[in-house]
Give the backbone structure.
Amino acid sequence: MTPDIALILGIDGIATGSIYVMVGLGLVLIFSVTRVIFVPFGDIVAFSALTLASLQLGRLPGTVYLVASLAVVACVVVSIHYWRQGQPQRIGRGLVGYGVLPLIPAAIAWLCAGTSLPEWAQIPLTVALVLPIAPLIERIALRPIADASVLLLLIVSVALTFGLSGLGLLFFGPEGFRTKPLTSEIFRFGAVTVTSQTLLMVGSAAVFGLLLFLFFERSFSGKALRATAINRLGARIVGIRPATTGTLAFLLASLLGAIAGILIGPVTTMYYDSGFILGLKAFVGAIIGGLLSYPGTVVGALLVGLLESFASFWNSALKEVVVFGLLIPVLLARSLALGQADEEDAEIDG
Protein backbone atom coordinates (compact mmCIF):
# COMPACT_ATOMS: atom_id res chain seq x y z
CA MET A 1 0.00 0.00 0.00
CA THR A 2 1.44 3.33 -1.06
CA PRO A 3 0.98 6.56 0.94
CA ASP A 4 -1.32 7.92 -1.76
CA ILE A 5 -3.59 4.87 -1.55
CA ALA A 6 -3.59 5.08 2.24
CA LEU A 7 -4.58 8.74 2.03
CA ILE A 8 -7.41 7.97 -0.42
CA LEU A 9 -8.66 5.17 1.82
CA GLY A 10 -8.46 7.48 4.82
CA ILE A 11 -10.53 10.17 3.11
CA ASP A 12 -13.10 7.59 2.04
CA GLY A 13 -13.21 6.18 5.58
CA ILE A 14 -13.75 9.59 7.11
CA ALA A 15 -16.55 10.33 4.63
CA THR A 16 -18.27 7.04 5.45
CA GLY A 17 -17.59 7.51 9.14
CA SER A 18 -19.26 10.92 9.04
CA ILE A 19 -22.54 9.20 8.13
CA TYR A 20 -22.02 6.74 10.96
CA VAL A 21 -21.41 9.75 13.21
CA MET A 22 -24.84 11.20 12.49
CA VAL A 23 -26.59 7.85 12.87
CA GLY A 24 -24.60 7.06 16.02
CA LEU A 25 -25.45 10.43 17.55
CA GLY A 26 -29.13 9.72 16.93
CA LEU A 27 -28.84 6.32 18.61
CA VAL A 28 -27.07 7.78 21.64
CA LEU A 29 -29.54 10.67 21.85
CA ILE A 30 -32.50 8.27 22.00
CA PHE A 31 -30.84 5.80 24.37
CA SER A 32 -29.59 8.40 26.83
CA VAL A 33 -33.08 9.86 27.25
CA THR A 34 -35.39 6.86 26.87
CA ARG A 35 -33.15 3.79 27.52
CA VAL A 36 -34.24 2.46 24.12
CA ILE A 37 -31.62 1.02 21.76
CA PHE A 38 -33.55 2.14 18.70
CA VAL A 39 -32.47 -0.52 16.21
CA PRO A 40 -34.86 0.72 13.44
CA PHE A 41 -32.98 4.01 13.25
CA GLY A 42 -30.99 2.78 10.26
CA ASP A 43 -34.25 2.06 8.44
CA ILE A 44 -35.20 5.72 8.80
CA VAL A 45 -31.93 6.65 7.10
CA ALA A 46 -32.67 4.23 4.25
CA PHE A 47 -36.25 5.51 3.90
CA SER A 48 -34.90 9.05 3.61
CA ALA A 49 -32.62 8.11 0.70
CA LEU A 50 -35.39 6.11 -0.99
CA THR A 51 -37.88 8.96 -0.53
CA LEU A 52 -35.57 11.46 -2.21
CA ALA A 53 -34.90 8.97 -5.03
CA SER A 54 -38.64 8.56 -5.60
CA LEU A 55 -39.16 12.33 -5.73
CA GLN A 56 -36.31 12.71 -8.21
CA LEU A 57 -37.92 10.06 -10.42
CA GLY A 58 -41.30 11.80 -10.22
CA ARG A 59 -42.90 8.92 -8.29
CA LEU A 60 -45.04 8.95 -5.18
CA PRO A 61 -42.72 7.97 -2.30
CA GLY A 62 -43.73 4.91 -0.31
CA THR A 63 -43.03 7.02 2.78
CA VAL A 64 -46.42 8.65 2.23
CA TYR A 65 -48.21 5.36 2.91
CA LEU A 66 -45.93 4.59 5.86
CA VAL A 67 -46.49 7.97 7.53
CA ALA A 68 -50.23 7.87 6.85
CA SER A 69 -50.52 4.38 8.39
CA LEU A 70 -48.48 5.34 11.44
CA ALA A 71 -50.45 8.58 11.88
CA VAL A 72 -53.80 6.76 11.85
CA VAL A 73 -52.61 4.20 14.41
CA ALA A 74 -51.06 6.93 16.59
CA CYS A 75 -54.33 8.89 16.58
CA VAL A 76 -56.20 5.81 17.78
CA VAL A 77 -53.62 5.18 20.52
CA VAL A 78 -53.68 8.81 21.67
CA SER A 79 -57.47 8.94 21.73
CA ILE A 80 -57.74 5.73 23.77
CA HIS A 81 -55.04 6.93 26.18
CA TYR A 82 -56.64 10.29 26.96
CA TRP A 83 -60.10 8.74 27.18
CA ARG A 84 -58.91 6.23 29.75
CA GLN A 85 -57.13 8.99 31.65
CA GLY A 86 -60.36 10.95 31.87
CA GLN A 87 -58.93 13.81 29.76
CA PRO A 88 -61.09 13.85 26.61
CA GLN A 89 -60.38 17.55 26.17
CA ARG A 90 -56.77 16.71 25.26
CA ILE A 91 -57.73 14.35 22.42
CA GLY A 92 -57.99 17.18 19.91
CA ARG A 93 -54.48 18.40 20.65
CA GLY A 94 -53.15 14.86 20.33
CA LEU A 95 -54.88 14.36 16.98
CA VAL A 96 -53.32 17.55 15.66
CA GLY A 97 -49.82 16.59 16.81
CA TYR A 98 -49.88 12.95 15.73
CA GLY A 99 -52.38 13.10 12.88
CA VAL A 100 -52.70 16.44 11.15
CA LEU A 101 -49.08 17.64 11.23
CA PRO A 102 -47.50 14.40 9.89
CA LEU A 103 -50.13 14.18 7.15
CA ILE A 104 -49.44 17.68 5.77
CA PRO A 105 -46.16 16.76 3.98
CA ALA A 106 -47.72 13.42 3.00
CA ALA A 107 -50.61 15.28 1.35
CA ILE A 108 -48.19 17.62 -0.45
CA ALA A 109 -46.23 14.63 -1.80
CA TRP A 110 -49.49 12.98 -2.86
CA LEU A 111 -50.63 16.08 -4.76
CA CYS A 112 -47.23 16.46 -6.43
CA ALA A 113 -46.99 12.80 -7.50
CA GLY A 114 -46.22 12.42 -11.18
CA THR A 115 -44.81 15.93 -11.46
CA SER A 116 -41.20 17.01 -11.55
CA LEU A 117 -40.52 18.97 -8.39
CA PRO A 118 -37.63 21.46 -8.47
CA GLU A 119 -34.52 20.21 -6.72
CA TRP A 120 -34.71 22.93 -4.07
CA ALA A 121 -38.11 21.55 -2.96
CA GLN A 122 -37.24 17.84 -3.00
CA ILE A 123 -34.90 17.85 -0.01
CA PRO A 124 -37.17 19.84 2.38
CA LEU A 125 -40.12 17.63 1.40
CA THR A 126 -38.02 14.51 2.05
CA VAL A 127 -37.05 15.76 5.49
CA ALA A 128 -40.65 16.68 6.28
CA LEU A 129 -41.86 13.22 5.24
CA VAL A 130 -39.24 11.32 7.24
CA LEU A 131 -39.26 13.56 10.32
CA PRO A 132 -42.47 12.18 11.93
CA ILE A 133 -41.56 8.48 11.55
CA ALA A 134 -39.54 8.04 14.74
CA PRO A 135 -41.89 10.09 17.00
CA LEU A 136 -44.90 8.18 15.66
CA ILE A 137 -43.22 4.83 16.31
CA GLU A 138 -42.29 6.01 19.80
CA ARG A 139 -45.88 6.99 20.57
CA ILE A 140 -47.37 3.78 19.22
CA ALA A 141 -44.97 1.07 20.38
CA LEU A 142 -42.48 2.42 22.92
CA ARG A 143 -44.16 4.97 25.16
CA PRO A 144 -46.77 2.50 26.50
CA ILE A 145 -43.87 0.35 27.80
CA ALA A 146 -41.52 3.19 28.71
CA ASP A 147 -40.99 1.89 32.26
CA ALA A 148 -40.22 -1.68 31.14
CA SER A 149 -36.77 -3.24 31.37
CA VAL A 150 -34.07 -2.38 28.85
CA LEU A 151 -34.18 -5.97 27.59
CA LEU A 152 -37.90 -5.76 26.78
CA LEU A 153 -37.41 -2.41 25.08
CA LEU A 154 -34.61 -3.94 22.99
CA ILE A 155 -36.78 -6.90 21.98
CA VAL A 156 -39.57 -4.57 20.86
CA SER A 157 -37.04 -2.43 19.00
CA VAL A 158 -35.71 -5.45 17.10
CA ALA A 159 -39.27 -6.50 16.24
CA LEU A 160 -39.92 -2.99 14.91
CA THR A 161 -36.86 -3.32 12.67
CA PHE A 162 -38.23 -6.42 10.96
CA GLY A 163 -41.64 -4.76 10.68
CA LEU A 164 -40.20 -1.64 9.04
CA SER A 165 -38.10 -3.73 6.66
CA GLY A 166 -41.23 -5.56 5.54
CA LEU A 167 -43.08 -2.30 5.07
CA GLY A 168 -40.10 -0.92 3.16
CA LEU A 169 -40.27 -3.86 0.75
CA LEU A 170 -44.01 -3.29 0.36
CA PHE A 171 -43.81 0.46 -0.20
CA PHE A 172 -40.50 0.83 -2.11
CA GLY A 173 -40.05 -2.55 -3.80
CA PRO A 174 -36.90 -4.70 -3.96
CA GLU A 175 -34.93 -2.56 -6.41
CA GLY A 176 -32.13 -0.29 -5.24
CA PHE A 177 -31.85 3.44 -5.86
CA ARG A 178 -29.10 6.01 -5.87
CA THR A 179 -29.91 9.70 -5.72
CA LYS A 180 -28.35 12.48 -7.73
CA PRO A 181 -25.25 14.12 -6.20
CA LEU A 182 -26.04 17.21 -4.21
CA THR A 183 -22.91 18.84 -5.60
CA SER A 184 -20.50 17.79 -8.34
CA GLU A 185 -17.40 19.89 -7.74
CA ILE A 186 -14.04 18.08 -7.65
CA PHE A 187 -10.96 19.29 -5.80
CA ARG A 188 -7.45 17.99 -6.45
CA PHE A 189 -4.73 18.05 -3.82
CA GLY A 190 -1.68 16.63 -5.55
CA ALA A 191 -2.39 13.00 -6.38
CA VAL A 192 -5.52 12.96 -4.23
CA THR A 193 -8.97 13.84 -5.57
CA VAL A 194 -11.71 14.90 -3.16
CA THR A 195 -15.29 15.43 -4.27
CA SER A 196 -17.43 18.18 -2.87
CA GLN A 197 -19.98 15.50 -1.90
CA THR A 198 -17.38 14.04 0.48
CA LEU A 199 -16.66 17.45 1.96
CA LEU A 200 -20.39 18.02 2.35
CA MET A 201 -20.78 14.75 4.27
CA VAL A 202 -17.90 15.50 6.61
CA GLY A 203 -18.94 19.13 7.08
CA SER A 204 -22.54 18.16 7.83
CA ALA A 205 -21.43 15.71 10.51
CA ALA A 206 -19.26 18.40 12.10
CA VAL A 207 -22.00 21.03 11.96
CA PHE A 208 -24.70 18.84 13.42
CA GLY A 209 -22.35 17.57 16.10
CA LEU A 210 -21.66 21.18 17.08
CA LEU A 211 -25.36 22.06 17.00
CA LEU A 212 -26.17 19.15 19.29
CA PHE A 213 -23.46 20.29 21.70
CA LEU A 214 -24.85 23.84 21.76
CA PHE A 215 -28.41 22.52 22.09
CA PHE A 216 -27.58 20.46 25.18
CA GLU A 217 -25.35 23.08 26.75
CA ARG A 218 -27.22 26.32 26.06
CA SER A 219 -30.94 25.64 25.51
CA PHE A 220 -33.61 24.91 28.11
CA SER A 221 -34.97 21.95 26.12
CA GLY A 222 -31.49 20.48 25.86
CA LYS A 223 -30.96 20.78 29.59
CA ALA A 224 -34.32 19.10 30.14
CA LEU A 225 -33.18 16.20 27.96
CA ARG A 226 -29.96 15.92 29.95
CA ALA A 227 -31.86 15.97 33.21
CA THR A 228 -34.14 13.18 32.00
CA ALA A 229 -31.15 11.16 30.90
CA ILE A 230 -29.46 11.50 34.29
CA ASN A 231 -32.47 10.88 36.52
CA ARG A 232 -35.99 10.27 35.16
CA LEU A 233 -37.59 10.36 38.60
CA GLY A 234 -35.79 13.55 39.56
CA ALA A 235 -36.86 15.12 36.25
CA ARG A 236 -40.49 14.32 37.06
CA ILE A 237 -40.14 15.89 40.51
CA VAL A 238 -38.90 19.20 39.10
CA GLY A 239 -41.69 19.32 36.52
CA ILE A 240 -40.00 17.84 33.45
CA ARG A 241 -42.20 15.35 31.59
CA PRO A 242 -40.15 12.36 30.39
CA ALA A 243 -42.78 11.62 27.73
CA THR A 244 -42.30 15.06 26.20
CA THR A 245 -38.50 14.89 26.33
CA GLY A 246 -38.66 11.40 24.81
CA THR A 247 -40.70 12.69 21.87
CA LEU A 248 -38.24 15.55 21.41
CA ALA A 249 -35.32 13.10 21.43
CA PHE A 250 -36.95 10.94 18.78
CA LEU A 251 -37.79 14.03 16.71
CA LEU A 252 -34.19 15.30 16.76
CA ALA A 253 -32.86 11.83 16.01
CA SER A 254 -35.28 11.49 13.10
CA LEU A 255 -33.96 14.78 11.72
CA LEU A 256 -30.40 13.42 11.89
CA GLY A 257 -31.53 10.23 10.17
CA ALA A 258 -33.30 12.14 7.39
CA ILE A 259 -30.24 14.26 6.65
CA ALA A 260 -27.90 11.26 6.85
CA GLY A 261 -30.04 9.44 4.27
CA ILE A 262 -29.96 12.44 1.93
CA LEU A 263 -26.16 12.59 2.21
CA ILE A 264 -25.49 8.88 1.76
CA GLY A 265 -27.93 8.40 -1.13
CA PRO A 266 -25.59 9.74 -3.86
CA VAL A 267 -22.63 7.53 -2.84
CA THR A 268 -24.34 4.23 -1.97
CA THR A 269 -27.12 2.29 -3.65
CA MET A 270 -29.86 2.01 -1.04
CA TYR A 271 -32.36 -0.83 -0.75
CA TYR A 272 -35.36 -1.23 1.51
CA ASP A 273 -33.26 -3.23 4.01
CA SER A 274 -29.97 -1.32 3.73
CA GLY A 275 -30.68 0.56 6.92
CA PHE A 276 -30.21 -2.51 9.13
CA ILE A 277 -26.48 -2.93 8.40
CA LEU A 278 -25.99 0.85 8.39
CA GLY A 279 -27.56 1.15 11.84
CA LEU A 280 -25.52 -1.77 13.20
CA LYS A 281 -22.25 -0.20 12.07
CA ALA A 282 -23.22 3.10 13.67
CA PHE A 283 -24.17 1.15 16.79
CA VAL A 284 -20.65 -0.33 16.89
CA GLY A 285 -19.29 3.22 16.88
CA ALA A 286 -21.69 4.20 19.65
CA ILE A 287 -20.60 1.17 21.71
CA ILE A 288 -16.96 2.18 21.31
CA GLY A 289 -17.93 5.59 22.67
CA GLY A 290 -19.74 4.05 25.64
CA LEU A 291 -23.29 4.55 24.25
CA LEU A 292 -23.67 7.66 26.40
CA SER A 293 -20.84 9.93 25.24
CA TYR A 294 -21.37 12.11 22.19
CA PRO A 295 -17.64 12.88 21.64
CA GLY A 296 -16.87 9.19 22.18
CA THR A 297 -19.50 8.26 19.61
CA VAL A 298 -17.95 10.62 17.07
CA VAL A 299 -14.51 9.05 17.57
CA GLY A 300 -15.93 5.52 17.51
CA ALA A 301 -17.99 6.10 14.35
CA LEU A 302 -15.01 7.61 12.51
CA LEU A 303 -12.89 4.65 13.62
CA VAL A 304 -15.50 2.25 12.20
CA GLY A 305 -15.51 4.14 8.89
CA LEU A 306 -11.72 4.05 8.64
CA LEU A 307 -11.55 0.39 9.60
CA GLU A 308 -14.20 -0.50 7.01
CA SER A 309 -12.38 1.43 4.29
CA PHE A 310 -9.00 -0.24 4.89
CA ALA A 311 -10.60 -3.67 5.38
CA SER A 312 -12.36 -3.30 2.02
CA PHE A 313 -9.00 -2.67 0.37
CA TRP A 314 -7.40 -5.76 1.86
CA ASN A 315 -10.37 -8.11 1.51
CA SER A 316 -13.80 -6.73 0.68
CA ALA A 317 -15.47 -10.04 1.55
CA LEU A 318 -14.31 -9.77 5.16
CA LYS A 319 -14.98 -6.09 5.82
CA GLU A 320 -18.20 -6.80 7.73
CA VAL A 321 -16.42 -9.42 9.84
CA VAL A 322 -13.67 -6.97 10.71
CA VAL A 323 -16.07 -4.16 11.65
CA PHE A 324 -18.40 -6.26 13.79
CA GLY A 325 -15.47 -8.23 15.20
CA LEU A 326 -14.29 -4.95 16.71
CA LEU A 327 -17.14 -5.30 19.21
CA ILE A 328 -15.51 -8.30 20.90
CA PRO A 329 -12.39 -6.61 22.33
CA VAL A 330 -14.34 -3.42 23.11
CA LEU A 331 -17.04 -5.25 25.07
CA LEU A 332 -14.43 -7.45 26.76
CA ALA A 333 -12.43 -4.42 27.88
CA ARG A 334 -15.54 -2.68 29.19
CA SER A 335 -16.65 -5.84 30.99
CA LEU A 336 -13.28 -6.18 32.71
CA ALA A 337 -13.29 -2.49 33.67
CA LEU A 338 -16.82 -2.80 35.07
CA GLY A 339 -15.82 -5.88 37.05
CA GLN A 340 -12.88 -4.06 38.60
CA ALA A 341 -15.10 -1.10 39.49
CA ASP A 342 -17.62 -3.43 41.18
CA GLU A 343 -14.84 -5.10 43.18
CA GLU A 344 -13.55 -1.71 44.37
CA ASP A 345 -17.05 -0.65 45.40
CA ALA A 346 -17.50 -3.91 47.28
CA GLU A 347 -14.21 -3.37 49.14
CA ILE A 348 -15.28 0.15 50.10
CA ASP A 349 -18.66 -1.08 51.34
CA GLY A 350 -16.97 -3.84 53.30
Observations:
- The radius of gyration is 21 Å.
- The CA atoms of residues 153 and 322 lie 28 Å apart.
